[in-house]
Amino acid sequence: MYDVIIIGAGLSGISAGVRLSYYGRKVRILERQLYPGGLNSYYERGDRTVDVGLHALTNFVPEGVRNAPLNTFLRQMRIRRHELDLCPQTFSEIIFPQCSLRLDNDFAAFAAQVERLFPDEAAGFRRLCERIRQTDALSPTAPELSARAILNEYLSSSLLQDMLLCPVMLYGNPQAEDMDFNQFCIIFRSVIFEGFGRPRHGMKPFLDCLLKRFFDQGGELSLGVEVTRLIVRDGRIAAVVTDQGEELHADAVLSCAGALETARLCSIPPPELASFPAGPIGFCETMFELNRRPRELGLEACVIFRNCQERFQFSPPAKDVDLSCQIICMPGNYQQCDDIADANTVRVSVLASPARWLALPSGAVYDKAKSNVVNAQIALMEAWKPGFADAIVGWEMFTPKTIERFTGRVNGVIYGSPRKLRQGASDDLSNLFICGADQGFLGIVGALMSGAAIANRHLL
Ligand SMILES: Cc1cc2nc3c(=O)[nH]c(=O)nc-3n(C[C@H](O)[C@H](O)[C@H](O)COP(=O)(O)OP(=O)(O)OC[C@H]3O[C@@H](n4cnc5c(N)ncnc54)[C@H](O)[C@@H]3O)c2cc1C
Questions:
Q1: Would you call 426 helix, strand, or coil by DSSP?
Q2: Ligand 1: which atom is nearest the Cα of residue 349?
Q3: What pLDDT is attached to residue 327?
Q4: What confidence tens digit (pLDDT) does each residue in 403-456 have?
Q5: What is the mean pLDDT of the chain?
Q6: Quick check: CB of 159 below 6 Å from ligand 1?
Q7: What pLDDT, on a 0 to 100 scale, did the predictor assign at position 142?
Q8: Cα angle at 87 between 83 and 90, to 5 degrees?
Q9: Cβ 39 under 6 angstroms from ligand 1
Q10: Going from the N-terminus, what domains does the chain have, and what CATH number goes with each?
Q11: DSSP H or E run through 15
Q12: Is it the case that residue 210 has pLDDT exceeding 90?
């Protein structure tokens, strides 16, 4: 008998596990994959460890900054900053055909650039930032508002509106076209008020550090064990059934697998969770391995949000992918990361249509669709940074189909359902709780905060 069984060793599940085991709760995490970390996991290729998707640890602030999510999380986990070996970014860029903005973990410098490039918008931008600071975006009762409508109230330049929406939507908008303003505030703070860093050697040491804390406190983790059924009786989860034939019992069950995904495991469908819509926003990402440092080709930033059209569009494409906007990440450009194993890697991500990718049969048709996208990405990069194509020595690509197969996320989406269960509990089942992407905190630090917050609110 456990106090809490956690479905999934995603970052939110692990962080909840650390918090609960610290307070003496008997906790077991069940993870269907052989590696922990969920959407931000890693795998082994020969003697190299490859990150599944690490671009940036958002919310990066220096040590000692008070009330910052990263520092709050570290304090709650009793982890010292140096244990995670975090490196700040050098700089990142938002590139549009009309102009560019630079992000370098210094909000005052960012605001000064906005005022220089858009002098007529200076006062509106300051007032918008003040509104973002004042918004209690984490409140479970915060009303849902349109981010586009609110930006339009403060800024008359559609270019500036788009340049602010571009990195924020690409790094955490679960819905098409518009964005909930609360979600906008959470991501804007994490990307623009705060900034980017990365664990120097990627996710494995980062996850090892969290899991060491979990194990030292008596936590149990079972990798390669899938929860196949949640037996519902008298409005509660009475038992957790695994693909190993075990039937486990716990006072509470916490899931980071997604709201709809968890509902589908229940023997009696829980109405609220089962009505969560599947997310529409998918991505394809190609990891290009080069024979030289990306800097030698003029790719000097850590992350580039590059929009090639006049207006920024954020919706599932009618074709397999939308190449008009790309996120381009160079892990080796972070400070003190020149000699990491990923120093020659360039990650190129584009919006993808989950429906089209999931409909493709595995095998030759799917492989052809992937190579078409890779060839188009190479042509795009070559036209922008000549020499890119010749520098490629290998590539690997994931699609929404890969994500669905790997994590069980319906539609293979990264940011979960457009609806969020902010309080982490529904009226459906008294001892079932949801953390992670469908609770509303996204990204690495967001997921970590979510697990700790739901553990604090409901399970301690
Ligand atoms: C390619 C990619 C790149 C990304 N890059 C970044 C980045 O650079 N920076 C950033 O901040 N964020 C990034 N993210 C987003 C970030 O990874 C996620 O927001 C965050 O990790 C979500 O964590 P989670 O705990 O909510 O859920 P998940 O990571 O989805 O974890 C859910 C876990 O539950 C497991 N599971 C599901 N069903 C079952 C079951 N029935 N039984 C047992 N286990 C089950 C899954 O296998 C998975 O491990 C990226 C995501 C992807 C996919």
A1: coil
A2: 1
A3: 98
A4: 999 999 999 999 999 999 999 999 999 999 999 999 988 899 999 999 999 999
A5: 96
A6: no
A7: 86
A8: 170
A9: yes
A10: 2-54+202-277+418-459 (3.50.50.60), 108-194 (no CATH), 280-407 (no CATH)
A11: helix 11-22
A12: yes
